[in-house]
Specification:
Blueprint (H helix, E strand, L loop, with lengths): L1 H27 L1 E6 L2 E6 L4 E8 L5 E9 L4 E6 L7 E7 L4 E7 L13 E8 L2 E7 L6 E7 L5 E7 L5 E6 L8 E7 L4 E5 L1
Antiparallel strand pairs: 1-2, 2-5, 3-4, 3-6, 6-7, 8-9, 9-12, 10-11, 10-13, 13-14
Protein name: Secreted protein (Por secretion system target)
Organism: Algoriphagus antarcticus
Keywords: Signal
Length: 195
């Protein structure tokens, strides 16, 4: 009886070490990375048939697909742009093994080039306009002043001030309300100011 118990215990330990080794093998043959709201699953050659599932934080399946890895590595991309940022699980299952990776997605920051040019005009008196430009990424702003009536260019200046500036423009013989300004930075962002 003692021998039977010893054999059973040895078999159980051997089986559990095989399961542990199988899980380690699958970890060695796979990887999961996230970049903002994109997840990429890489399965190395020789893995064979596998099922990849994307699960939410509660374990609910959001997407599953079956793949076959043959003679070269396989990259399986997922785009979660329509889902909230947060923690997700990637479950990979083969005939003998199963592994779960936890990944975190996050919102991609807005590119500074996608932000609008912040330029503001204010009439100070009948002939003077104050122009304020803030949040510049690089120095270099073209300012053009046009007649509201004719559309003709009246004045042009390039201002090479880093980060931002405030400048007053005065016009002899023209009212501040009779002009408009076009402001353009070196990134190509534009703003037209009607006063």
């Amino acid at each position: 009886m003692k021998t039977l118990f010893t054999v059973a215990l040895a078999s159980a330990l051997s089986f559990s070490s095989l399961v542990a080794n199988a899980s380690e093998d699958l970890r060695a043959l796979s990887s999961v990375n996230s970049n903002y709201k994109k997840i990429s699953v890489t399965l190395n050659e020789g893995l064979g048939n596998a099922k990849i599932s994307i699960l939410d934080a509660d374990g609910k399946s959001l997407n599953s697909r079956n793949v076959r890895v043959k003679d070269e590595n396989l990259l399986v991309p997922y785009d979660l742009k329509n889902l909230p940022a947060g923690e997700y699980q990637v479950k990979i299952v083969t005939n003998n093994e199963e592994i779960v990776y936890t990944v975190e997605t996050k919102e991609q920051p807005i590119s500074s080039n996608d932000l609008p040019l912040m330029a503001y005009g204010k009439v100070l008196d009948d002939n003077t306009v104050r122009l304020a430009v803030v949040g510049l990424l690089e120095p270099g702003v073209d300012v053009k002043v046009y007649s509201s009536e004719s559309g003709k260019l009246i004045y042009e200046e390039k201002i090479n001030q880093a980060e931002g500036f405030i400048k007053n423009f005065s016009f002899n013989g023209l009212k501040a309300t009779d002009i408009y300004m076009e402001v353009k930075d070196v990134k190509g962002r534009r703003k037209t100011l009607f006063l």
